[in-house]
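Chain A, query sequence.
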Amino acid sequence: MSSSIAATRLSVLDRSRTREGEDAREALMGTVALAAEVERLGYHRFWVSEHHGVPGVAGSAPTVLAAAVAAATRTIRVGTGGVMLPNHQPLVVAEQFGVLESLFPGRIDMGLGRSVGFTDGVRRALGRDKKDADDFAGRLDELLGWFTGVRSAHPGVRAYPAEGLRVPPYLLATGGGAAIAAAAGLPLVIGDLKGRAKVVAAIERYRADFRPSEWSEEPYVVVAGTVVVAGTEEEAARLLVPEAWALAYSRTEGVFPPLVPPERVEGLPMTARQREFYESGLRGHVYGTEEQVGDALERVLKETAADEILVTTSTHDRAALLDSYRRLARLAGLTSVNT
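Chain A, predicted structure.
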């Protein structure tokens, strides 16, 4: 077991991916069940995501799902990775997290993102436009103001039960997100486990420009990505196949499909463009045996000096997915807890 991995928090983000033949209920219950399992394994936090109009993803209401996860667990931190702030009024987001924190005090995280709808049709249905992401910093400031009581934009209005509560905010970095996190004094969540130069540079700038705030006195970096651990490197690589094909299909057909078994994918005819996206979807992840993954994560930590690793793995076989999380917990030396 590596000393640096053992000293680093390890967490899970689940996107409630549907599998072929499943309905949304099965996918959502699978997320809740997975949260209980990773809590027993000793992971630090469990987050859920926000996707709209995506048939292959059941998690469209992250604060609702977070409530179900928190109710089914006892010790693990629960939150969102993230609520897409341009899609919502800051007051409503504050109220939702105020309710969560009131129900599950000391366990709720408020992960926030900048994305706006997956397609033009979804954006129209949400009453949003791509330009709504342009004022993300302003929306973020308003949201945090509902918790602190600073309501300059809406005098006389108060957010109940959010006001006075401290729900830790985390900012998911896309585009200029790292700079916004630094200016606001918030923890940063950034996706990359391969140490790409531009990501490492963004993390370094974030730390250099960080302004201490009432939310965080020091920079805090969470590096997110796919990690798969199996008995052999070949087995681990195969577990990446269903999600890689779903990504390729979505890029070429405009629909993000449910996950199918890898053997189905391996026999599918693909266009040249689909093959390109598919092979791209297989790259950029950490996978292999416990020893291989341990070495790879060591490199990630050396390059980024991350405080936490957030694992976002999806595959068709739920048993294999849980086995991967068990193996990852073992190599990181996590301590199982009784729930």
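Residues 24-41 form the longest helix (18 residues). The longest strand covers residues 9-14.
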